[in-house]
Specification:
The structure holds two protein chains of two kinds. By secondary structure, chain A is mainly α. Chain A has one domain (2-13, 32-158, 170-201). Chain A has helices spanning 2-19, 33-60, 63-95, 103-124, 128-143, 145-156, 176-201. In chain A, helix 2 (33-60) runs antiparallel to helix 3 (63-95). By secondary structure, chain B is mainly α. Chain B has one domain. Helix content of chain B is 82%, strand content 0%. Chain B has nine helices and no strands. The two termini of chain B are 28 Å apart. The chains are: A mainly alpha, B mainly alpha. Chain A binds chain B through residues 58, 110, 113-114, 116-117, 120-121, 123-127, 130, 133-134, 136-138, 140-142, 144-145, 148-149, 152-153, 156, and chain B through 149, 152-153, 156-157, 159-163, 166, 169-170, 172-174, 176-177, 180-181, 184, 202, 206, 209-210, 213-214, 217, 220-221.
Chain lengths: 202, 221
């Protein structure tokens, strides 16, 4: 599985460098989206899996779910940092500033804060039973902000961020080769995340 | 009907107990008020004479309320936790009654904090409020949200061994959906601009969600 993933990642990198044409109006720098979009996707997936395992823990009191919840949050934290940094670089190259509190930057920053708060909380509680309970409760509490961040903030503020692939108009405004490589990169990143989650259990 | 009445009595009893202890001890109230006063004074002092935009003022007001509230309500469950009486309290009263009693107490202390700091803030920054109704409604909804999320967060941080600064870190991301509309509405109450009722509805809806979620999640702590 590991070898397969390394091969897939290398293939995608090669495709990005050699096959994908420079993107209209943005040129070569826009290729950072092949890194930015998958990492952003995984950081959201990791957030929901952490909450999902937290809920499973509270229902069953099985500590392996707590471990999974923590692992997902740790991985999610790394991915959200990578995604934020790559996004900021892209923002500097296209909008001229690393940061301007665009709604999507606000959203991802809140995600960083939540991950950070969750991991700080885990570090601050020494008793294992209490730590598992308390962090599961916090994980579920923080999920409540998601609908707000996803549905309300983008309506309240104007955004410069390109619409996501699955936008409201339901149209895909991309070259087919770009789209194929992007989807492959997202799948690859998701598989890497799953593999890292599984490796910890065994 | 008898049962809900009973729950209400338990909530009232816990509120009364915490309020009496708070008044008798005074340290928590005093710390919270002095924290707010120090923050407002230092901000106002550093901007003497300069014009401050209403948008910035609105944000300052909520930053002061947030951090003063953090200083005041972080230890809501600490007394019982340190004395080891929380399990006993849970024997006498239902868990939900404890949560809602504490929540009411937190809301009450936040209201006292705001009644204290808001006039000082308005005077020191020389703010002319155009719509007191909007300002009061916004603050009311904001405080309900902080109280709902803050009570559960206080219950969470009580078990932490390292406490310094933990409470505001945990509370901020959760209450952000309250702060963003609250700051916009506060600014509009200063300037007198037209506001959308939908922002108030968003705040009220999120308050309701927070209260409900705290009630569900408290049972697992």
């Amino acid at each position: 599985m590991n070898k397969l993933l390394i091969l897939l990642t290398l293939a995608i990198c090669a495709a990005i460098i050699f096959f994908v044409p420079p993107i209209k109006g943005l040129g070569e720098v826009a290729k950072i989206i092949f890194f930015h979009v998958p990492t952003a996707w995984v950081s959201v997936i990791a957030f929901f899996s952490s909450a999902f395992f937290a809920a499973r823990f509270l229902r069953t009191f099985n500590f392996s779910f707590d471990k999974l919840s923590e692992r997902a949050a740790r991985l999610g934290f790394i991915f959200v940092l990578l995604s934020t940094i790559s996004g900021a670089i892209f923002s500097k190259l296209t909008w001229g500033a690393y940061w301007n509190w665009d709604p999507r930057q606000t959203t991802i920053f809140v995600l960083i804060l939540i991950y950070g708060a969750y991991l700080t909380l885990r570090a601050a509680v020494s008793d294992e039973r209490t730590r598992a309970k308390v962090s599961a409760v916090y994980s579920l509490l923080s999920v409540l902000t998601v609908p707000f961040l996803v549905f309300i903030i983008p309506r309240m503020y104007f955004s410069l961020h390109p619409s996501p692939v699955l936008n409201s108009s339901g149209r895909v405004e991309m070259d087919s080769i770009v789209l194929v490589v992007l989807i492959a990169a997202v799948v690859d990143a998701t598989l890497i995340f799953i593999q890292l989650m599984r490796r910890e259990i065994s | 009907m008898r049962l809900s009445n009973f729950l209400f009595e338990q909530v009232a009893a816990i509120l009364r107990k915490d309020f009496l202890i708070g008044l008798r001890r005074r340290a928590t109230f005093a710390a919270m008020m002095m924290f707010a006063l120090t923050a407002v004074a230092s901000l106002s002092l550093s901007m003497t004479g300069g014009f401050v935009e209403p948008k910035f003022l609105a944000a300052l007001l909520w930053v002061v309320i947030f951090f003063a509230a953090s200083a005041g309500i972080a230890g809501t469950f600490d007394d019982e936790a340190q004395a080891g009486t929380l399990p006993t309290l849970k024997l006498y009263a239902q868990a939900q009654a404890i949560l809602f009693g504490k929540m009411c107490y937190v809301f009450l202390s936040l209201t006292m904090l705001t009644l204290f700091i808001l006039p000082i803030f308005l005077i020191l920054f020389n703010v002319a409020v155009e719509s007191f109704l909007l300002l009061s409604l916004t603050i009311l909804l904001g405080l309900i949200g902080i109280a709902a999320a803050g009570t559960l967060t206080a219950a969470i941080t009580t078990s932490a061994t390292v406490k310094g600064g933990l409470f505001p870190i945990l509370l901020f991301p959760i209450t952000l959906p309250i702060f963003l509309p609250a700051i916009t509405l506060t600014e509009l109450s200063f300037t007198g601009g037209a506001f959308e009722t939908s922002s108030l509805i968003v705040m009220a809806a999120f308050d309701a969600i927070l209260i409900l979620a705290s009630s569900i999640l408290y049972d697992y702590l």
